[in-house]
Structure formats: C-alpha cells, structure tokens
Amino acid sequence: MKKEAYLHPHNMDRKNLEWQNELVRIKTHFPFSINSSKVALLVLDMQDIFLNEDSHAYIPSSPSIIPNIKELVSTFSVQKSVVIFTRHLTSKDEQDVMFRWWRNPILESDPMSKITNMLDTSKVKILQKNQYSAFFSTDLKTFLQKKGIKQVIITGVMTHLCCETTARDAFMNGFEVFFAMDATAAYTEELHLGTLRSITHGFGRCLPTTEIIKSFHTEVL
Predict the structure, then answer these.
(1) Pairing of strands 176-185, 82-88
(2) Average pLDDT for the chain
(3) Closest CA to 48 of 142, 125, 123, 116
(4) Which end of the chain has the least Cβ crowding within 10 Å, N or C?
(5) CA-closest candidate to residue 207, choices 59, 23, 29, 80
C-alpha cells in the first residue's frame, strides 16, 4: 500500500464537497443533531509516531488536519465542554494481538509516542489505550456518563482504525456519533472514504469541521 497525501489545505473545501456528495447517496436523514451541552470531543492518537515524516507510521495527510483539530479544541475550551485526547501505546508481548499483527510496538518510552506539541493538552483529559477503540479496557464510558455526555465528536488518526472503531463502540455504548471528516486522516483516501461510507450508513454523521463549529452557535444542524 502506497501512502499518499490526499488532503491539503488548498483542496480541503473541494474534498469535503466531494465526500458529502458521495455520502448523501448513502443516507440523507439523521435522527439527532449536535447538542453543545451534551457533546464531548475525542482527539485520537495525535502522536508524533503518526505525524513525524521520519516515522515508519507517518500519515502524509495528518499535518493538514491539525488546524481543524486546533479549532475544535479551541471551540470546546471556550464553551467549557469536555475534550479528551488519547495516547495509543502497545507492548512487545507475543500474546498481544496488536503486536502480533503490526510487529512494531508503540512503547511509552519512545519519544515519538508522545502527543504532538502542536496541540495543547494542558487542560484536557489524556486517556491511555492499547487497542483501536478508546472504549476498550478504559474508563471512557464511565467518565463520559459522569459528565452527562450523550454525544461524541471523533477526530484524529487513523480514520479507518482507531477513529472508526471508537465511533462504532461509541454507538454501541449508546452515544450519538459525529465524525469530523476533515479532522481525521488515514494512509490513503480509499481507506478514509471507506470509513466515511460505513459510519454514515450505520453509526453516525460525517461532517466538515466548519459545520460542527457552526452548530455551537446555532444549535440547529
């Protein structure tokens, strides 16, 4: 699989329009809308191992989603809404299915396992996870329920792995799902669009960052 940068600042508006036109063929009616008092922002695995060009796991489109994630985090901070960052860590344990599949563990001691300093995590909850889903063997569900959260917005990397799996698990755990199509990234547009199709069909609404932010001001989306 050849990794490719399919998303750039100069083509983002066009890509959002293309993707929305594709998704409207799959589903046009959604039974829920964003409620700014009940929604949490999940920023998944924005770690240097995925964002640094020198890393074997580098995602070429990942730099392009950072400004959108920053804008979402800023919006949530102003609203005093819940923001959660995840940090994906794995081990060298041969019994660990993630290690057997990838053979490249993300160790806590590796400097590249840290969340990028291009995003401010000083006032957010940081959740450590070791599987694709942020709900698997973590306190995420309990934490969200205690905060009165009914909805989640998914951002981060990778679209087709941790973002998609977390979105599916959020839905299965009773949360309404919104998926930021231009604040998530995968290795290729094929993988990215595959997730957008699946989420739209059965799990949540895929929206551009601008529409998500607009909903905080209008409460009608």
Answers:
(1) unpaired
(2) 95
(3) 116
(4) N
(5) 23
In which residue are the tokens 């995590």 written? 121
Q: Are 124 and 77 in contact (CB under 8 A)?
A: no
Tokens 């039974």 sit on residue: 31
Can you tell me which residue has the tokens 């344990």? Answer: 93
The pLDDT confidence band at residue 135, using thresholds 50, 70 and 90, is very high
Q: Is 213 within 8 Å of 182 (Cβ atoms)?
A: no
Residue 170 · residue 142 · CB < 8 Å? no
Q: How far is CA 139 from CA 49, 69, 146, in A?
A: 24, 23, 11
Mean pLDDT, rounded, for 44-62: 97
Distance CA 140, CA 101 (A): 25
- Other C-beta atoms closer than 10 Å to the C-beta of 143 total 15
Alpha-carbon distance of 46 to 71, in angstroms, equals 15
Task: State the residue for tokens 């590249």.
Answer: 112
Find all residues with CB under 8 Å of 70, minimum gap 6, and list them.
Answer: 118, 119, 120
Which residues 6+ apart lie within 8 Å of 64 measured at CB? 5, 7, 8, 9, 12, 185
Cis? peptide before 158, omega within 30° of 0: yes
Token pair listed for 138: 């973590």
Single-letter residue type at 195:
T
Yes or no: say if 36 and 219 are a contact pair by the CB < 8 Å rule: yes
